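Because showing beats explaining, we let one protein speak, sequence and backbone structure tokens together, and leave readers to judge.
___
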Amino acid sequence: MSEHKILLVEDDKEISEMLKNYLSVENYEVVCAEDGEAACLAFDKSSFSLVLLDLMIPKINGMEVMQHIRANSVVPIIIVSAKDTEADKALGLGLGADDYITKPFSVVEVLARIKANIRRTEQYSNPAASALPETLSIGDLTLNLTDYTAIKGGLKIELTAKEFEILKLLMQNPKKVYTKEQLYSLVWNDNYFGDENAVNVHISRLRNKIEDDSRNPRYILTVWGIGYKLGELS
């Protein structure tokens, strides 16, 4: 049995069969759902390494499925959709997707994104054991790099793998200003094609979780015209 199980939510049977066959050859176990209701039921019944999610599906739409998943899980979600406007991408990423692939797509690209997201989550969930926890701190925010937890004011903050990696990168290099291209290349481990949505939305989500006032951030500062840097808190 495969080590990794993927939930594939797609109402186009031809696309669903193609992806399932391709991923099965790559030794992934694939569970298919043709509508949002079936997707939610399948997700609640089993444990998955990743979710491939179409947005335009019957009964319950893809955005609602994603909200259902995100209510209880930080499993990687890759949207695969024909909806390709900047607004659609921003909305999908804002609701908790980790990645966004537009149709028509290359199955090679889909596989590469799946592998990258699962690899990142495994690093996030199963860090190497260490004698002493390695931590990074700024203000009342602490990142534990051993068990990949974030604590602010004594309370644990639930971060996705990418949110954690963005924050870790900034905290490890407190004086450096990162362009969006640099952040994307380092965190997503992928080439940057000028799509700023992924970086912008993940920064926005991260600020909503760690800042006292996300409209007046202190931890993650915008350097206008360049990118982002860590705030200078004592």
